[in-house]
Amino acid sequence: MASISFRVRSKANKKAAIKIRVSIDRQNVFETNTGFSIHPKNWSSETGLPKQTTAENKQIQSNLKKLDAFVWENLNADSGGSVIIDQFWLEEKVASCFNRIEKTDIGLLVHYLQELIDNAATRKVKVPGGYKMGISKSRVNSFIATKNVIVEYQAIIKKQLHFLDLSETTVDKFTNWLLVTKKYAINTASKFVANIKTISREAERKGIPVHPFAKYIEVFSESDDDRYIQTLSFAEQKQILDTHFEREALKNAKKWLLIGCEIGQRAEDLLILTKKNVRYKDGRMFMDIFQEKTNKRVTVGVAAPHIIDIIENDFPYEISDQKFNDYIKEVCETAGINEMVEGKIFDALTDRKLLGTFEKYKLITSHCCRRSFATNYYRKMQTSVLMKITGHSRESIFLRYINQRENQDDNAELFIRLHEEIHRVGEPQLQVV
């Protein structure tokens, strides 16, 4: 049977915090501060309440009895539903009982997100060596999408969500709605949840009251088996290179596609490049690129002769990501990239991605450029070199990006191959004496 009690844990000669303890059963016992304190000598271990010797003690006892009744009332109500009774629940009830937390407009998730979006251009973002001004366009779009989906969810539950409402139960119900009701892809739903966690942590740093559970929100992702990655092999890139196009728009998209597969950058960084990004050193071509999403500056060495020729003699003109996505499907279709492969394609009727088997050209998007680069050169070059170009910070993230797992034999074989190449060019070798 559940029980509620109060206690003072300190025996020091000074005031100590009064704790409330809720015991559901042997496995579920929770305790937190009530916000009141008392000198241990004024505490009755027999009654579990303050001794009625002073007016202050009488007031504390009155408050504790009020809290006792409030917690019992909510415990009975919430135990009959789907609410999880835990430490966070108890902390919230203590705060709610005495109205210690005020729910303000800025404490509303959608209001906070809107303020963030409105001031995106002037927000400071930490970058290597300091700070830069302004959030990236892709990040702003992500926050806009998150705000819109929260607005939609609020209309369903007929309630505005505050940071104080982000209990485990609330977050679980929201996640379930995203995945089951709205049928969002796992990674899409995860991004919404991750953004809520991000703004919760920031709001708390600013002094806005936030539910204690918010910092423990778990961000999830789809398993490797659920990920369908499309890349263009070197042979397929050769097919595209050898294919002639009449339309100027397709010629231009073809050039961007081939360049993208050789320099490994995101579309938003790729499609704004100009000859100003090109420089030479010792007769070799380099491209200096700023990655907007990661706020990193990278330098890519350009070695493929056909890419050097395009950059030097026929540099493509700027194009939007949307147009690029449309055109490269036509480019790949004309080039015969029509192998039947499994993947996800956008369905306009359901406004979701549909899993199925399609001609490969239908699945090609701008992101295939970066993935093709990383996949094609993996195990042919040191992973650390590839990561410097793609901008990945950890090898585990890079490997997941190309749907690979670290293979110890591969690392050993790469060492042997590089060792052989080093000594084949005349490096001194150790001799057994």
Automatic annotation (TrEMBL):
Q: Which UniProt keywords apply?
A: DNA recombination, DNA-binding
Which residue intervals define the domain Arm DNA-binding in the entry? 11-67
Among the GO biological process terms of this entry, one is: DNA integration
> Which residue intervals define the domain Phage integrase SAM-like in the entry?
132-208
Pfam families given for it? Answer: Arm-DNA-bind_5, Phage_int_SAM_5, Phage_integrase
Q: Which GO terms describe its molecular function?
A: DNA binding
**InterPro entries attached to this UniProt entry:** Arm-DNA-bind_5 (IPR035386), DNA_brk_join_enz (IPR011010), Integrase-like_cat_sf (IPR013762), Integrase_catalytic (IPR002104), Integrase_recombinase_N (IPR010998), SAM-like_dom (IPR025269)
Residue span, Tyr recombinase domain: 232-406
Gene3D superfamilies noted in UniProt: 1.10.150.130, Intergrase catalytic core
What this protein is called in its record is Phage integrase family protein
What is the species listed in this Swiss-Prot or TrEMBL entry? Flavobacterium caeni
Lineage, broadest ranks: Bacteria, Pseudomonadati, Bacteroidota, Flavobacteriia, Flavobacteriales
